[in-house]
Structure formats: C-alpha cells, structure tokens
Design goal:
The protein is α+β, with helices and mostly antiparallel strands. It has helices at residues 3-8, 22-30, 62-77, 87-104, 118-127, 148-163, 173-185, 201-208, 249-261, 296-300, 314-322, 367-373, 386-392; strands at 43-47, 192-194, 197-199, 216-220, 230-232, 243-246, 266-270, 277-278, 283-284, 330-339, 345-350, 362-366, 374-380. Strand 2 and strand 3 (197-199) form a beta hairpin. The longest helix is centred in the first third of the chain and has 18 residues, at 87-104. The radius of gyration is 21 Å and the shape is globular.
Length: 394
C-alpha cells in the first residue's frame, strides 16, 4: 500500500495521532453530517460471523488487521472456533522479510509500516501464527500500538547498513535488527501451549487453525494490464511484488457478491481519502455531484440518508488510479451486505479503528464506491464463481 497508508491508518483514535497527522485527521473529521444514522434503515442480506472489532492504534498496520481478521472468519467458515490472531506477530515477520529485501535492493524499496494484503498469507505460509494472548507486541510501555519510534529506529539501522562505511556488509546486521524487534515487540515463541496442547507457530496455523495459505488469491481490475491474467499492482507498499488476478470491473462485484453469498468474507484494500468517505458516520459512497460543486447545504447533508450516486465506468476507475486520486490507503474486511430503505445494496465493512463511530466500528460502503476505489481484495478462491475460477485457471 502507498505511503498514504502510513497516514490514514493512524486514525483509529484521533487523539493518538502523531505530529504531522493533524491536517489529514481534520479533513477526515470534517466528513460527517449531524444525525446521519437516523437517515438510514438497514436490512441484512448477508451477515458473516467474525471476531470483535480491534484497534490498530497509532500504527500503519491495517493490512495485518484486515487480513488476520479475515483469517479468523475463515476459521469460522471451516467450522472451527476462531482464535484472536496476533497481528503484531505477522508485522514482525514482515519487517524481517522486508528488511532483507530493502538491504539487497540497496534501499531502493519502500520500507515502513505499510504492507499489502497478501503479506499476511505469505507470512502465515512461511512462519505460521500465534494467539494474541501470547504476542501483543507491546513491550515498550504502551497499551496500544505506537510504531513511529520503532519504524524510525528500524529504518535508521537499515540505512546505516546500506551506507556500508566498513566497505562490506557485516554478517550480524540481521541479528541486531531482530534484537530491536525483540525489545519493542517481544521475542517470538518457538513453542507454546494453547488449550492444553503444545504448538510451534507453524503447527498452530496448520493444526489448530486449519488454514492453507494456498487457498487465497488476490483480485483486482485495471485496464492497463491484460484481463484474466496475474499482474502486479504498482504501489510502493507492494514491496513483496504480490500478484493479483486482473478481471473486469463488474467481475469484481460479481465475485464479491458470490463470496458473501457463500459465506466467505473479503479482505479489502482501497482509497478512503474521499470527502464522501465518513468514518464518523460509517458511510462511504460516490456522490452524483462532485464535492467541489456542491452547495453548503448539500455538503452538510452528504450522509443524511441515501443520496444519488455517480455512474462508475472502467475508464473512470482506471483514470483515478493513473492520476493518483485512488491510492492504496487502507485495509478493511467486508463481512456482509445490507439493503437501505430504497432497496440499494451496500457492503458491511469491519474496520480496525476501534468502535467510536455511528456503527461501533463498522461502516456501510456502496457498490459504486467499491467499483471506483478498490485497489485489490484478498479472498478464498472457493468463493469465486466456478466459471470465473476456470477462466482464471484456479
């Protein structure tokens, strides 16, 4: 995900924002209407079981929260009791892998808190998982994630290694890097007991959770690449060059709808910087009238009940990606679908910014918003309609 993710993902609790975030936070806080909740009447269409809403705090780790929450729902889908997965274990393993690539690339790679959705399944496949109760990642005297200092220390170390004043990279830099992660996030348990049984992180993921990382694929839709083929989304935080299957824009909607119908949730990545995205009111849509052309009254009432939406085309979607008005800001989990009082379908979305909004940590996202502002989504390939799976070679 792009550098903007580093900013937007800090919005879990506005009071915890780091220096430099004030302008962006104020913009997001402005995206609200008075008494907006009273203007909507919701009827559930699909409602997928999931774990409780979490709070990523002052960290740009939404990708880990959204995709691990997705894996928790996958456990439910498999008939298992879900476990609260340690997001910071995934983050720690990702930092290690990213650091290796950053040094090998002589610093010509984005290094920071941001990541991509498949980072979670990639790390799961290689390193397994551990319960949150065993790895909170809060060894530095805080009760929520605050990664500004950690991120700066880690990047400073790596840049010193790359600067190479000894004219040769030392063989111990990874050990030093790991020691910093141990101090801030905690040492990784090689083995642990959970519910009376002994596990390694790898055996816990396989035997207790029952998750097979090869079951998951990422989907996207862009016209500058061939359709129905794998592609790499060119955003800075796709540091691992994760691939996505490229489909038509309406295929995205068909795939998401089918997955939800079949009881599969979705881990979603996209842009949340629009004026029509209101975290406070829990509503995201694409207004028929551009914000710059709205009257004050129209702006004040943007979220007071269903509003007319712009028609979204594949060309408009591509243009928004090409001109940077759609960037890779944030990751969340699609956990259902609801209809408003006019019969229009919206996706129910679980966020990781705590529960301080109109819908206690959830929001409703219109299908047009998803059409326009989706970068990619991660899902169980079994949720893809069979004809499409065949077309994609899955």
């Amino acid at each position: 995900m792009q550098n903007k993710l580093f900013l937007t993902c800090f919005l879990a609790l506005f009071a915890f924002a780091a220096h430099g975030q004030v302008d962006l936070i104020n913009k997001v806080k402005d995206n609200q209407s008075e008494n907006a909740k009273e203007g909507f009447q919701w009827t559930d269409v699909y409602d997928i079981e999931r774990t409780e809403v979490k709070n990523q705090g002052a960290s740009g780790t939404c990708w880990s929260y959204s995709s691990n929450s997705f894996l928790e729902s996958e456990m439910v889908k498999k008939g298992k009791k879900p476990v609260d997965i340690a997001e910071m274990y995934t983050v720690r393993r990702t930092y290690e892998e990213k650091a290796d690539r950053y040094v090998r690339m002589h610093g010509n790679l984005n290094f920071g808190q941001g990541g991509a959705l498949p980072d979670v399944t990639d790390m799961f496949k290689k390193y397994g998982a551990v319960p949150q109760s065993l790895y909170a990642g809060l060894n530095y005297g805080e009760d929520i994630n605050r990664h500004g200092e950690l991120d700066g220390v880690l990047k400073g170390m790596l840049d010193a290694v790359i600067e190479n004043k000894n004219k040769k990279v030392s063989p111990v830099w990874k050990e030093a890097f790991g020691a910093v992660l141990d101090v801030y996030l905690g040492k990784v348990p090689e083995t642990f007991e959970y519910e009376g049984k002994k596990y390694t992180p790898q055996s816990f993921g396989k035997d207790y959770m029952g998750i097979d990382a090869d079951d998951y694929v990422q989907i996207t839709s862009f016209t500058h690449q061939p359709m129905y083929q794998p592609m790499i989304i060119m955003v800075p935080d796709n540091w691992n060059y994760g691939q996505s299957y490229n489909v038509q824009m309406e295929d995205m909607i068909t795939i998401i709808d089918n997955a939800l119908k079949e009881g599969y949730s979705i881990s979603w990545a996209g842009d949340v910087s629009e004026k029509s995205f209101s975290w406070r009111n829990g509503i995201a849509y694409v207004p028929e009238t551009d914000y710059s052309k709205m009257s004050k009254e129209e702006r004040d009432n943007m979220f007071n009940g269903p509003q007319p939406e712009m028609t979204i085309t594949a060309e408009a979607r591509q243009m928004a990606y090409d001109n940077y008005t759609t960037t890779d800001d944030h990751g969340m989990q699609l956990v259902g679908m609801s209809k408003d009082q006019n019969g229009k379908e919206w996706y129910l979305v679980k966020n990781s910014w705590g529960n301080r909004n109109d819908y206690e940590g959830y929001l409703y996202m219109s299908k047009n918003y998803v059409r326009l502002k989706t970068l990619s989504f991660l899902m169980n390939k079994n949720g893809i309609p069979k004809p499409m799976r065949k077309k994609l070679g899955l």
